[in-house]
Amino acid sequence: MRLLVCDNYDEMSRRAAETLADRVTQKPDCVLGLATGSTPLGAYERLVTMVREGRLDLSRVTTVNLDEYRGLGEESDRSYVSFMRTHLFDGAGIPKEHTHFPDGTDPDSDHACRVYEEVLASVGRQDLQLLGLGRNGHIGFNEPGDAFIPGVHLVDLASSTIEANKRFFASEAEVPRQAYTMGMRAILAAKEILLIASGVDKADAVKAAFRGPVTPQVPASVLQLHPDVTVVVDQEAYSKCM
Q1: Which of 95, 119, 161, 190 is placed for a possible disulfide with 129 were both Cys, Cβ 3.0 to 4.6 Å?
Q2: What is the pTM of this model?
C-alpha cells in the first residue's frame, strides 16, 4: 500500500485525476470503477478539463459505478446516474452505453443484484477502482457489520451515512434508506485501487482503516489485503495518523 499525503483538497484532487488520466492514456479502452460523493468532484472536474483541452480522450473507457440508491433512477436528479452524468460523463464525452450502475428502480432487489453481478462479470475486472471513504469507514455502501459481503447487495444505510448524504437532498427525510452496492469481491478484484479522502471528518476513518486491524467493522480496512492500493489524502484526513 502506498500512502500519499497532500497539502489540501486541490492537490489531492490533482493527484487523483493525474492517476486516472495516466491509466487511460496507457489503456484507452480500460475499465474504470468509479465513486460518487463530494470527494471525487475535484478529480472529475480536472478530467473534464483535460478532455476539453484535448489532453485526454475518455470516449473508449467503460465505467462501473459502485452503487445507487434504491428507488432512484436516471430521471431523478438525486440519483448517482444523474450525478455522474452531470459531473463527469457528459463533459468528458463518455458514451452512455459505456456506463453501468445498479438499477435503483428495479422493485425486485434480488434481481437487481443478480443483474449487476452479471454486468460486472461481462465487462471484466476494473483496471482501476476509485474509492471514497465514509466517515464510518465504508467503501461504496458497504457499511460496518459482522462480515464482509462479497457480492452486489441491498444495504440498509447507516444513520451516519444518511446524515453525511443529506446535504445532497432538500432534507434528511428525503435521503433513501437503502442502496445497492458493489460487494467486496468485485472491489478487491480490481487490478489497482485508488482511495481518496479529504477533511478532518475523515481522519478517524483513515486511521482505523489503514493503521488498525482488518475488520468488517471498518470496511475499508479490507484494502490492506489488496496488492496494489494507493491512498491519497490531504493533511486534515491524515491528521490522526501522525
Answers
A1: 190
A2: 0.95
